[in-house]
Write a structure and sequence with these properties.
ribonucleoprotein; alpha+beta; 50S ribosomal protein L7; globular; Hypothetical Cytosolic Protein, Chain: A; ribosomal protein; YlxR; YlxR_dom
């Protein structure tokens, strides 16, 4: 019997992947922040860790709206 692996969908590319392959983004009252632990409370979304195309501002607008540019820059800095 194999263990259940939760799947989530990337907000940028819309691919379903195991939760461990994605990075959680958190929507807070202060704005959008990166949640590498995946355990902070709040409204979250996921983005692919290994795909720089998913970190583009245009693709993040679905989730971050006006904060997409800042989020895109934060993701690039996080993975740099």
């Amino acid at each position: 019997m194999s263990k259940h692996v939760p799947e989530r969908m990337c907000v940028a590319c819309r691919r379903r992947r195991p939760k461990g392959e994605l990075l959680r983004l958190l929507l807070t009252t202060a704005g959008v922040e990166i949640d590498p632990t995946g355990k902070k409370p709040g409204r979250g979304a996921y983005v692919c860790k290994d795909s720089p195309e998913c970190w583009e501002e245009k693709k993040l607008r679905r989730f971050a709206k006006g904060q997409a540019k800042a989020l895109s820059e934060a993701l690039r800095a996080f993975f740099a």
